[in-house]
Hints:
By secondary structure, this protein is of the alpha/beta class. The protein has helices at about 10-35, 40-50, 85-95, 115, 160, 170-180, 180-190, 210-225, and strands at about 60-65, 70-75, 100-105, 125, 130, 135-145, 150-155, 190-195, 205.
Amino acid sequence: MKYKKTVSPSAILKIDAFWKWFDKNSVQIENAVKHGINSSEVLETLNKKIKNISNCVGFMIKGSNRVDRQFLTIIFTVGGQLKKVRWVTAFENRAPSFPNWKIQALVQPYEDLEKIKSGDDKPFKFHDFELKISEMYFNMVDYDIHKRTISIKVYLQNYKFHYDNPFLKEAVEDVLEEILGEIALKNSISEIQLAQIPNENDDLIPLCELPQYIILINNSNRKLKI
């Protein structure tokens, strides 16, 4: 299926106007994120500005993990919807250069897998729990041969303490999005189940190997012409 690759000229004008507004307010947005100064008001205004251009576009802001370079990244997202990617691409392509800011279209796959494999990755901190990729495992529950999607069970170290937390599954999805990127998560994973890591986990696969696992299983089934 082919999707539109560009947005309309009128949308381009709106995006250019957004970046002019962002330029005037980038310091306030930075202070809201880093120091919590008027954060609710500032971020709500930012969200409204984006939604006025396209209702399908969301955003997240992340800090730099590098001590020697303290910048923020604003990531424009479309929930993995391929037909909407042109919107976030337009935001990225039309963005000028800003001090202390990086502009990015889509949540991209996690790159530093070696740090995860060595157990040196930093945990993702949520409201009342943490998730560390190097301490998470998975196995495949089912494979849809027509949609080429898999359902998986993700195993957590402290699931038995947090199984009734209403935010746990969403947090795991956030971690999976970091590993796979938003496009692959949306188009490769059909269902996510959660479970406690068993005492014997030799049959489980480290979660950081999920991207390669998806590639391998899809390639195998193409060769078999399933």
